[in-house]
Amino acid sequence: MSGKLHVGIVALLFVVFSTSCWAEKLRELSVELDGGMRKDSIDWNIAGVNNTPNVRSELEWEDVEIYQLSVVTKLIVENKKVPFATYVRLKGNYGWIVDGDVQDSDYNGNNRTLEFSRSYSDGGDGDVLDLSAALGFQFDLFNNRLLIAPLVGYSYSEQNLTMKDGNQVVSRRDLDPRVQELGPIAGLDSSYETEWSGVWVGVDM
Q1: pLDDT tens across 95-128, in order?
Q2: Which candidate, 180, 163, 166, 191, places its Cα nearest to that of 117?
Q3: Whole-model pTM?
């Protein structure tokens, strides 16, 4: 987990503690558990030396099936001195990858031309993680008929992907003599980790 995320969580916990100290009324403290299935995909590519070709190698994970568990915690506290309640939301998702397909292609020409290598493999292993923390203020409108909370938050996500049981289907040694021969790829067991994070804004209604 990144250092920025640790700092963000510590700061949010400080806000929650501070809020609870001056709060006059606890409106809501809830925890929701959820489960389901989702599908992910990723396309990763790099260019050659001096951007020639503009796509040298490309990896694509498609139809990555994931069983996911989610938890959402909300804390809403009121203070009669202001016309809004402090609103804190924490959310986390964790998922197990159970199926997926991977294509690995290499090119000698620009715009994905002169393909000299292509293989397919099993991407049905690994896991994913999503964490999000948000802080805002909830306003009551129309005699509590509408509750609206503008939010500022920070999120972190990662995908831990794998490639196994590969099979070479395109092999042009006239374009690159180092390319794998056609057929099964012995001992293929590669892993790829992607992660991204950032600040976001939104509204809960």
Answers
A1: 999 999 999 999 999 999 999 999 999 999 999 9
A2: 180
A3: 0.79
